[in-house]
Design a protein that fits this description.
The structure is a single chain. The chain is 55% helix and 5% strand. By secondary structure, the chain is mainly α. Strands 1-2-3 form a 3-stranded parallel beta sheet. It has a two-stranded parallel sheet with strand order 4-5. Strand 4, helix 8 and strand 5 form a beta-alpha-beta unit. Helix 4 crosses helix 7. The longest helix is centred in the C-terminal third of the chain and has 30 residues. The structure holds tryptophanyl-5'AMP. Tryptophanyl-5'AMP binds next to strand 1, helix 1 and helix 7. Tryptophanyl-5'AMP (TYM) binds next to strand 1, helix 1 and helix 7.
Length: 329
Amino acid sequence: MLSGIQPTADSFHFGNYLGALRQWVALQEDHEAFYCVVDLHAITVEYDPKALRERTRRSAAQLLAAGIDPERSTLFVQSQVPEHAQLAWVMSCITGMGEASRMTQFKDKTAKGGADRATVGLFTYPILQAADILVYQADRVPVGEDQRQHVELTRDLAQRFNHRFGKTFRVPEAYIVKETAKIFDLQDPSSKMSKSGSSPAGIIDLLDEPKASAKKIRSAVTDSGRDVIFDEENKPGVANLLTIYSALTGRKISELEDEYAGRGYGDFKKDLADVVVEFVTPFREKTLTYLDDKAQLDAILAAGAERARAVTEPTLAKVYDRLGFVPGP
Ligand code: TYM
């Protein structure tokens, strides 16, 4: 199993956590898992090098705080494992221009600024993502709904390579948990909660001050009614809050609907705010503790990269052989 997350913000948010990270933690129990902080992907848009270094470490600290166990799972930074970029080049040579042009995330990201201002790296981003997955021979890729198309591309590329050069890659599948596959913006429940797209009040960051996250829940957009019922069509704000509540407590949505029947939104939001505070308070403390010892954090990541390379080097050697390259030193 493999998955990745971008170090493009100071904190991950509840969409990242409920859509993906929670599954990462659960699946490491009975899968061989590789989890990476994808810094090569983060440089496809404008960024500040100093902030990137800081955010990469913050990302790793948050993954540890979320419960990724570096003994059990291989936790590493993408740029420390050169085979990702090497395989991405190979994959780019079997990807069609038209195929790459159909990736909706690229279209969304360039819709405002125009494709002229976008980099070639942003365009080929999904091909690097395919390489991330294939270089580990991953079977499963735990992600949120927005990554489904990239995993589909990965499957197509794996099949194409196997067909053209002989069976080399496993064909991976996205692992998407339906209930939490798409967490919405608290202020605009018609769009997904997103590091780049949401307003600060629309995102609950995992590293928010607990008081700030409670306030965001209390001021989340609902509707003019007062019934706490799960109706994504007509009450998307309430449905989103119910999803978050249910995911954090493990309680069924129907049970929550019963509990808040006839009580209006006030009580419901107040209780959810408490649940969120209970989650973010220890999470924040744990993350800050990991960040206190940068040398130890870097050592965990270096050990992870070494373990990762034990898998990626043989895969790349096999690929190079299949491609017809002359064996090197
Ligand atoms: P990224 O960094 O945007 O997001 C990390 C994970 O969080 C999920 N996610 C969400 N899930 C539910 N609701 C939301 N509102 C929400 N927002 C984000 C994402 O689906 C993702 O699983 N391209 C990837 C990073 C990547 C990757 C990979 C993933 C690079 N290589 C290889 C899997 C395998 C991305 O930008 O995720």
